[in-house]
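Re: the 168-residue chain
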Amino acid sequence: MVISGDELGWRVLQDKSVQKKLVGLFGTDILSKGQINRKVLGPKVFANKKTLSRFNRIVHPPLLALLKKEVAQARKRKCKAIVIDAALLAEWRIPIKLDFLLMVHASKKIQLKRLLAKGLSRPQALRRIASQMPYRQRRRVSDEVLVNSESMAELRWKAKSIWKRIEG
């Protein structure tokens, strides 16, 4: 079973109490047709460390609660493996025992190129990259690093190779 951090994040942003707190922090222009507009919210969240910290204090508790619930449900169903696809998993300090933590890493140059391709401005992209836990810190809490510097096909091939090795 795969649990997507992006999907969980989206579900948390649908929560009316979370929306109310975010509107209180960032203003009503983050809403579009009664829903959070992530393209408007993103630049506001990453404007500086203070707003990112405030955002995280609002979003992370319900996000982690939802993640815990999803993992518990998967374990109840006796899933052979639970994969949590979440870019910031190492930073969340989740209260769930993980058997293996794989960090997918791309150089800052590649990260910047990819963020610019998504439509972020250079300053916005650099702020997002700077907001992440430093590589060495993430590396210390990870069991292995998968370098993501190639195509998506190459990344899939590397991931499958690691998966086969883990399965034994």
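The chain has a mean pLDDT of 92.
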